[in-house]
Amino acid sequence: MSGIGAIGGIGGGVGGIRGTSPVSGPTKPASGFGDAVMKGLDSVAGLEKQADNLVATMASGGNVQISDVMAATSKANLGMSIVNEIRTRGLEAYQSIINVQV
Amino acid sequence: MSHGPFASIDISNTGLGFNKYWLDTIAHDIANVNTTTTPGQEPFRARMVTAMPLPTNTAEGGGVIVRGVVDHAGDPPLMYDPDNPLADEKGYVQGAVVDLAGQMGDLILASRSYQANMSVFKEARDALQVATTLGRG
């Protein structure tokens, strides 16, 4: 899902956020912002697992290239930053909508 | 290997891996510069690493990988050393086929090449880190 699509998912109803019941009827959006963030978190979890495995292997004297460990940890770190930034942007958009004067 | 947003990190990582391998073989060659053998036997020969692009289906390429290791050709130098237990009946031993000056040159190349890939790695990481802040208002 593109970043714009992720933000647009909010327009489809906050019900897309996992763990909350749909506000506007029982129909759930195909993929809401919360799902997108969860998907991102899942892939970051995969990156972190790879990094963890490499670090554990290196720490226990395994045959691991230091550059591989650094690449894996950097990727996990960057992935987490990206997902966190997207979460923040989405939350900001949500706050803007919540604060609309009626 | 599939590349996502971290393509440049993955690619420069292959460069780091290749150049580390190159440094390792240079260490092996220089460590064996004084390795002698009995004439007639296969002498120690310096190893030369060859590279090839890592096969990939992505347009930007996949980096580099070791194609293979080739032994240096050439005749080993003969040295008169009758006390050496490896000497033949005429008192000669053969030295290693290692061009020490060439190895030192390769060492500089390999280490600079490693640093170059490290610069790409750092630059890619910093660029992605900055890109994550683009959305901040």
What's the structural blueprint in terms of helices and strands?
The complex is a heterodimer of chains A (102) and B (137).
Chain A: H1 3-11, H2 33-59, H3 66-98
Helix pairs in contact in A: 1-3, 2-3
Chain B: H1 7-31, E1 47-53, E2 64-71, E3 78-80, E4 92-94, H2 100-131
Antiparallel strand pairs in B: 1-2, 3-4
Helix pairs in contact in B: 1-2
How is this structure best described in words?
The complex is a heterodimer of chains A (102) and B (137). Chain A is built from three helices and no strands. By secondary structure, chain A is mainly alpha-helical. In chain A, helix 2 packs antiparallel against helix 3. Chain A starts with a helix and ends with a helix. The N terminus of chain A is likely disordered. With 137 residues, chain B is of the alpha+beta class. In chain B, helix 1 runs antiparallel to helix 2. The longest helix of chain B is centred in the C-terminal third of the chain and has 32 residues. Chain B is elongated. The interface between A and B is medium-sized, with 14 and 17 residues.
Provide a quick synopsis of the model:
The complex is a heterodimer of chains A (102) and B (137). Chain A is mainly alpha-helical and 102 residues long. Chain A contains 3 helices and no strands.
Largest sheet of chain A: none
Helix content of chain B: 40-55%
Largest interface: A-B, 14 and 17 residues
Which of globular, elongated, flat, extended, rod-shaped describes the shape of chain B?
Answer: elongated
Please summarize the sheet with the most strands of chain B. 2 strands, antiparallel
The strand count of chain B comes to: 4
Give the overall average pLDDT of chain B: 92
**Which structural class do the helices and strands of chain B define?**
alpha+beta
Distance between the termini of chain A: 31 Å
Strands ordered across the widest β-sheet of chain B: 1-2
Uncertain ranges of chain B: none
- Output the structural class of chain A: mainly alpha
